Amino acid sequence: MLKFFFILLVLVGSAHAETAVFNAQELKSLFSSPSFHDGPNCYNTSLMALGYVSERMYSSGKELDFYLKNFCQEISTTPEEAPNGIVMTYRDNSERLAHAALLMGNGWVFEKNSYRGTNYGSSSSYTSPGYYLFQRYNKSIYASEVKIYNVNYYQCVSSSEVQEALQVIRGRSWALRLEDMRVSLSATIVDISFEKLSNFLTETGFLYLVELQELLRTRTKNALEKEYLYSMAQSVYGQILYAHESAQRSCIQCQSHDVGPLNNELVKTAEILNKYRPRKPKVETAQ
Protein backbone atom coordinates (compact mmCIF):
# COMPACT_ATOMS: atom_id res chain seq x y z
CA MET A 1 0.00 0.00 0.00
CA LEU A 2 2.83 2.42 0.83
CA LYS A 3 4.40 1.64 -2.53
CA PHE A 4 1.08 2.51 -4.22
CA PHE A 5 0.90 5.94 -2.56
CA PHE A 6 4.55 6.69 -3.28
CA ILE A 7 4.13 5.93 -6.98
CA LEU A 8 0.86 7.87 -7.13
CA LEU A 9 2.53 10.87 -5.50
CA VAL A 10 5.33 10.78 -8.06
CA LEU A 11 2.84 10.55 -10.93
CA VAL A 12 0.68 13.39 -9.67
CA GLY A 13 3.77 15.53 -9.27
CA SER A 14 5.12 14.66 -12.69
CA ALA A 15 5.47 17.02 -15.62
CA HIS A 16 2.09 15.81 -16.87
CA ALA A 17 0.20 16.63 -13.67
CA GLU A 18 -1.75 19.42 -15.31
CA THR A 19 -3.61 16.83 -17.42
CA ALA A 20 -4.57 14.58 -14.51
CA VAL A 21 -8.31 14.01 -14.19
CA PHE A 22 -8.31 10.78 -12.19
CA ASN A 23 -9.80 10.54 -8.70
CA ALA A 24 -6.98 9.64 -6.29
CA GLN A 25 -9.42 8.70 -3.50
CA GLU A 26 -11.22 6.22 -5.74
CA LEU A 27 -7.89 4.73 -6.81
CA LYS A 28 -6.99 4.20 -3.16
CA SER A 29 -10.37 2.59 -2.40
CA LEU A 30 -10.25 0.22 -5.36
CA PHE A 31 -6.62 -0.77 -4.95
CA SER A 32 -7.02 -1.58 -1.25
CA SER A 33 -10.11 -3.78 -1.53
CA PRO A 34 -10.57 -6.32 -4.35
CA SER A 35 -14.08 -7.31 -5.42
CA PHE A 36 -15.30 -10.64 -4.06
CA HIS A 37 -18.38 -11.22 -6.23
CA ASP A 38 -18.50 -11.15 -10.02
CA GLY A 39 -19.53 -7.88 -11.66
CA PRO A 40 -17.10 -4.97 -11.26
CA ASN A 41 -15.03 -4.92 -14.45
CA CYS A 42 -12.38 -2.99 -16.36
CA TYR A 43 -14.85 -0.42 -17.74
CA ASN A 44 -16.19 0.32 -14.27
CA THR A 45 -12.62 0.57 -12.97
CA SER A 46 -11.73 3.28 -15.50
CA LEU A 47 -14.99 5.19 -14.90
CA MET A 48 -14.57 5.09 -11.12
CA ALA A 49 -10.93 6.12 -11.35
CA LEU A 50 -12.00 9.11 -13.45
CA GLY A 51 -14.67 9.95 -10.88
CA TYR A 52 -17.45 9.63 -13.46
CA VAL A 53 -19.37 6.99 -11.46
CA SER A 54 -19.28 6.09 -7.78
CA GLU A 55 -20.84 2.60 -7.78
CA ARG A 56 -18.49 -0.37 -7.81
CA MET A 57 -20.39 -2.76 -10.07
CA TYR A 58 -20.55 -4.05 -13.61
CA SER A 59 -20.37 -1.31 -16.24
CA SER A 60 -21.40 -2.22 -19.75
CA GLY A 61 -19.33 -1.35 -22.78
CA LYS A 62 -22.21 0.95 -23.75
CA GLU A 63 -21.79 2.85 -20.48
CA LEU A 64 -18.09 3.42 -21.07
CA ASP A 65 -18.73 4.37 -24.69
CA PHE A 66 -21.36 6.89 -23.54
CA TYR A 67 -18.72 8.79 -21.58
CA LEU A 68 -15.98 8.36 -24.20
CA LYS A 69 -18.25 9.69 -26.95
CA ASN A 70 -19.60 12.68 -25.04
CA PHE A 71 -16.80 13.70 -22.66
CA CYS A 72 -13.52 12.47 -24.12
CA GLN A 73 -11.41 13.23 -27.15
CA GLU A 74 -9.33 10.64 -28.95
CA ILE A 75 -5.62 11.47 -29.04
CA SER A 76 -2.50 9.97 -30.56
CA THR A 77 -0.02 8.60 -28.00
CA THR A 78 1.47 5.38 -26.60
CA PRO A 79 1.21 3.68 -23.18
CA GLU A 80 4.77 4.80 -22.41
CA GLU A 81 4.35 8.41 -23.52
CA ALA A 82 0.75 9.11 -22.47
CA PRO A 83 0.17 11.63 -19.66
CA ASN A 84 -1.77 10.46 -16.62
CA GLY A 85 -5.54 10.08 -16.76
CA ILE A 86 -5.69 8.75 -20.33
CA VAL A 87 -8.23 5.98 -21.03
CA MET A 88 -6.85 3.21 -23.22
CA THR A 89 -9.34 0.94 -24.99
CA TYR A 90 -9.04 -2.30 -26.92
CA ARG A 91 -11.61 -3.03 -29.63
CA ASP A 92 -12.07 -5.91 -32.03
CA ASN A 93 -12.55 -5.43 -35.76
CA SER A 94 -16.28 -4.84 -35.27
CA GLU A 95 -15.44 -1.93 -32.93
CA ARG A 96 -16.76 -3.84 -29.91
CA LEU A 97 -14.94 -3.05 -26.67
CA ALA A 98 -12.77 -5.83 -25.26
CA HIS A 99 -10.86 -4.04 -22.48
CA ALA A 100 -10.15 -0.62 -21.01
CA ALA A 101 -7.51 0.71 -18.64
CA LEU A 102 -6.43 4.04 -17.21
CA LEU A 103 -2.90 5.12 -18.09
CA MET A 104 -1.18 6.88 -15.19
CA GLY A 105 1.81 8.41 -16.94
CA ASN A 106 5.45 7.28 -17.09
CA GLY A 107 4.40 3.84 -18.36
CA TRP A 108 2.09 2.95 -15.43
CA VAL A 109 -1.44 1.58 -15.80
CA PHE A 110 -4.42 1.02 -13.48
CA GLU A 111 -6.81 -1.75 -14.51
CA LYS A 112 -8.91 -4.79 -13.61
CA ASN A 113 -8.47 -7.80 -15.86
CA SER A 114 -12.06 -9.03 -15.92
CA TYR A 115 -15.50 -8.92 -14.30
CA ARG A 116 -14.66 -11.94 -12.16
CA GLY A 117 -14.38 -11.64 -8.38
CA THR A 118 -11.81 -13.20 -6.06
CA ASN A 119 -14.24 -16.06 -5.35
CA TYR A 120 -13.71 -17.30 -8.90
CA GLY A 121 -10.14 -18.44 -8.25
CA SER A 122 -7.15 -18.04 -10.54
CA SER A 123 -7.20 -19.64 -13.95
CA SER A 124 -5.41 -19.22 -17.25
CA SER A 125 -8.47 -17.36 -18.57
CA TYR A 126 -8.75 -14.91 -15.68
CA THR A 127 -5.49 -13.67 -14.21
CA SER A 128 -5.79 -12.03 -10.76
CA PRO A 129 -9.63 -12.15 -10.70
CA GLY A 130 -11.16 -9.53 -8.43
CA TYR A 131 -7.97 -7.50 -7.98
CA TYR A 132 -7.33 -3.95 -9.10
CA LEU A 133 -3.85 -3.75 -10.56
CA PHE A 134 -1.50 -0.77 -10.46
CA GLN A 135 1.54 -1.78 -12.46
CA ARG A 136 3.92 -1.05 -15.28
CA TYR A 137 2.15 -1.31 -18.61
CA ASN A 138 4.58 -3.96 -19.87
CA LYS A 139 3.44 -6.19 -16.98
CA SER A 140 -0.20 -6.06 -18.08
CA ILE A 141 -1.58 -9.23 -19.63
CA TYR A 142 -3.05 -7.00 -22.35
CA ALA A 143 0.31 -5.51 -23.33
CA SER A 144 0.97 -8.46 -25.63
CA GLU A 145 -2.44 -8.15 -27.31
CA VAL A 146 -2.04 -4.74 -28.92
CA LYS A 147 -1.49 -6.50 -32.26
CA ILE A 148 -4.80 -8.38 -31.91
CA TYR A 149 -7.00 -5.40 -31.09
CA ASN A 150 -7.45 -1.86 -32.31
CA VAL A 151 -6.08 0.35 -29.52
CA ASN A 152 -7.35 3.88 -28.91
CA TYR A 153 -6.47 6.59 -26.39
CA TYR A 154 -8.84 9.18 -24.92
CA GLN A 155 -8.27 12.36 -22.96
CA CYS A 156 -11.33 13.11 -20.85
CA VAL A 157 -12.75 16.13 -19.07
CA SER A 158 -12.92 16.40 -15.29
CA SER A 159 -15.65 14.69 -13.28
CA SER A 160 -17.05 18.08 -12.24
CA GLU A 161 -17.61 18.96 -15.91
CA VAL A 162 -19.42 15.66 -16.44
CA GLN A 163 -21.56 16.25 -13.36
CA GLU A 164 -22.54 19.70 -14.59
CA ALA A 165 -23.34 18.48 -18.10
CA LEU A 166 -25.52 15.59 -16.86
CA GLN A 167 -27.18 17.41 -13.99
CA VAL A 168 -30.55 17.73 -15.73
CA ILE A 169 -30.56 14.17 -17.07
CA ARG A 170 -29.54 12.67 -13.75
CA GLY A 171 -32.40 14.55 -12.13
CA ARG A 172 -35.05 12.80 -14.25
CA SER A 173 -37.26 10.42 -12.26
CA TRP A 174 -36.16 7.39 -14.33
CA ALA A 175 -32.49 8.34 -13.91
CA LEU A 176 -32.90 8.66 -10.14
CA ARG A 177 -34.52 5.23 -10.04
CA LEU A 178 -31.66 3.72 -12.03
CA GLU A 179 -29.24 5.37 -9.62
CA ASP A 180 -31.08 3.82 -6.67
CA MET A 181 -30.71 0.38 -8.26
CA ARG A 182 -27.02 0.92 -8.91
CA VAL A 183 -26.35 2.04 -5.33
CA SER A 184 -28.26 -0.92 -3.94
CA LEU A 185 -26.51 -3.45 -6.18
CA SER A 186 -23.10 -1.93 -5.46
CA ALA A 187 -23.64 -2.15 -1.70
CA THR A 188 -24.98 -5.70 -1.93
CA ILE A 189 -22.09 -7.25 -3.86
CA VAL A 190 -19.31 -5.68 -1.80
CA ASP A 191 -19.49 -7.84 1.31
CA ILE A 192 -22.31 -10.36 1.55
CA SER A 193 -22.58 -14.15 1.67
CA PHE A 194 -23.56 -16.05 -1.45
CA GLU A 195 -26.80 -17.22 0.17
CA LYS A 196 -27.80 -13.64 1.09
CA LEU A 197 -26.81 -12.49 -2.38
CA SER A 198 -28.96 -15.19 -3.97
CA ASN A 199 -31.92 -14.23 -1.75
CA PHE A 200 -31.47 -10.56 -2.66
CA LEU A 201 -31.40 -11.36 -6.38
CA THR A 202 -34.43 -13.69 -6.38
CA GLU A 203 -36.47 -11.08 -4.50
CA THR A 204 -35.15 -7.54 -5.13
CA GLY A 205 -33.17 -8.31 -8.29
CA PHE A 206 -36.29 -9.87 -9.81
CA LEU A 207 -38.26 -6.68 -9.12
CA TYR A 208 -35.45 -4.53 -10.52
CA LEU A 209 -35.61 -6.41 -13.82
CA VAL A 210 -39.37 -5.97 -14.08
CA GLU A 211 -38.98 -2.25 -13.41
CA LEU A 212 -36.03 -2.01 -15.79
CA GLN A 213 -38.21 -3.26 -18.62
CA GLU A 214 -40.65 -0.41 -18.00
CA LEU A 215 -37.90 2.20 -17.72
CA LEU A 216 -36.52 1.13 -21.09
CA ARG A 217 -39.88 2.05 -22.62
CA THR A 218 -39.48 5.64 -21.40
CA ARG A 219 -40.27 8.04 -24.21
CA THR A 220 -37.71 10.78 -24.79
CA LYS A 221 -36.70 12.64 -27.94
CA ASN A 222 -33.39 13.72 -26.45
CA ALA A 223 -30.62 11.60 -28.01
CA LEU A 224 -28.28 12.06 -25.03
CA GLU A 225 -31.00 10.94 -22.62
CA LYS A 226 -31.69 7.85 -24.74
CA GLU A 227 -28.00 6.92 -24.70
CA TYR A 228 -27.74 7.47 -20.95
CA LEU A 229 -30.90 5.49 -20.16
CA TYR A 230 -29.88 2.55 -22.32
CA SER A 231 -26.27 2.37 -21.13
CA MET A 232 -27.20 2.58 -17.43
CA ALA A 233 -29.97 -0.01 -17.83
CA GLN A 234 -27.60 -2.41 -19.56
CA SER A 235 -25.14 -2.08 -16.68
CA VAL A 236 -27.82 -2.83 -14.07
CA TYR A 237 -28.92 -5.86 -16.08
CA GLY A 238 -25.32 -7.06 -16.43
CA GLN A 239 -24.64 -6.78 -12.70
CA ILE A 240 -27.73 -8.80 -11.81
CA LEU A 241 -26.83 -11.43 -14.43
CA TYR A 242 -23.22 -11.90 -13.33
CA ALA A 243 -24.00 -11.80 -9.61
CA HIS A 244 -26.65 -14.47 -10.21
CA GLU A 245 -24.16 -16.64 -12.10
CA SER A 246 -21.63 -16.13 -9.32
CA ALA A 247 -24.06 -17.20 -6.59
CA GLN A 248 -25.25 -20.25 -8.50
CA ARG A 249 -21.68 -21.33 -9.25
CA SER A 250 -20.28 -20.96 -5.76
CA CYS A 251 -23.15 -21.68 -3.37
CA ILE A 252 -24.50 -25.23 -2.99
CA GLN A 253 -27.37 -24.05 -0.77
CA CYS A 254 -28.31 -21.42 -3.38
CA GLN A 255 -28.98 -24.09 -5.98
CA SER A 256 -32.15 -25.05 -4.10
CA HIS A 257 -33.57 -21.54 -4.43
CA ASP A 258 -36.39 -21.01 -6.91
CA VAL A 259 -34.57 -18.98 -9.56
CA GLY A 260 -37.03 -19.71 -12.37
CA PRO A 261 -38.81 -16.32 -12.16
CA LEU A 262 -35.46 -14.49 -12.04
CA ASN A 263 -34.17 -16.40 -15.06
CA ASN A 264 -37.36 -15.59 -16.97
CA GLU A 265 -37.02 -11.87 -16.25
CA LEU A 266 -33.35 -11.93 -17.27
CA VAL A 267 -34.42 -13.33 -20.66
CA LYS A 268 -37.22 -10.77 -21.04
CA THR A 269 -34.91 -7.89 -20.11
CA ALA A 270 -32.26 -9.04 -22.59
CA GLU A 271 -34.90 -9.08 -25.34
CA ILE A 272 -36.09 -5.56 -24.49
CA LEU A 273 -32.50 -4.29 -24.31
CA ASN A 274 -31.96 -5.65 -27.79
CA LYS A 275 -35.20 -4.05 -29.00
CA TYR A 276 -34.29 -0.62 -27.67
CA ARG A 277 -30.60 -0.79 -28.56
CA PRO A 278 -29.53 2.54 -30.11
CA ARG A 279 -29.05 1.97 -33.81
CA LYS A 280 -26.39 3.57 -35.91
CA PRO A 281 -27.91 5.89 -38.53
CA LYS A 282 -28.01 4.42 -42.00
CA VAL A 283 -25.50 5.84 -44.42
CA GLU A 284 -27.21 6.98 -47.58
CA THR A 285 -25.46 6.01 -50.75
CA ALA A 286 -25.29 8.33 -53.74
CA GLN A 287 -27.77 7.45 -56.49
What features would you describe in this structure?
With 287 residues, this protein is α+β, with helices and mostly antiparallel strands. The protein has 2 domains: 16-158, endopeptidase domain like (from Nostoc punctiforme) (endopeptidase fold (from Nostoc punctiforme)), CATH 3.90.1720.10; 166-275, no CATH class. The chain has 10 helices and 6 strands. The protein has helices at 2-12, 24-32, 42-50, 61-71, 159-165, 167-170, 173-190, 194-215, 223-250, 260-275; strands spanning 72-75, 86-91, 97-105, 108-112, 132-136, 150-156. The chain has a 6-stranded antiparallel β-sheet. A hairpin with a 5-residue loop joins strand 2 (86-91) and strand 3. Helix 7 (173-190) runs antiparallel to helix 8. The protein is globular, with a radius of gyration of 19 Å. It starts with a helix and ends in a 12-residue tail after the last helix.
Oligomer type: single chain
Overall geometry comes to globular
- First CA to last CA: what distance? 63 Å
As for the number of domains, it is 2
Task: Please work out how many helical segments DSSP would assign.
Answer: 10
> Which homologous superfamily in CATH is the superfamily of the largest domain?
endopeptidase domain like (from Nostoc punctiforme)
Low-confidence stretches at least 5 residues in length (pLDDT < 50)?
12-19, 282-287
> What series of H and E elements makes up the topology?
HHHHEEEEEEHHHHHH
User: Widest sheet: strand order?
Assistant: 1-6-2-3-4-5
CATH architecture grouping of the largest domain: Alpha-Beta Complex
Largest sheet: 6 strands, antiparallel
Q: Proportion of β residues?
A: 5-15%
Structural class: alpha+beta
Q: Identify the CATH class of the largest domain.
A: Alpha Beta
* CATH fold-level name of the largest domain: endopeptidase fold (from Nostoc punctiforme)
Q: What is the arithmetic mean of pLDDT?
A: 86
Number of strands: 6
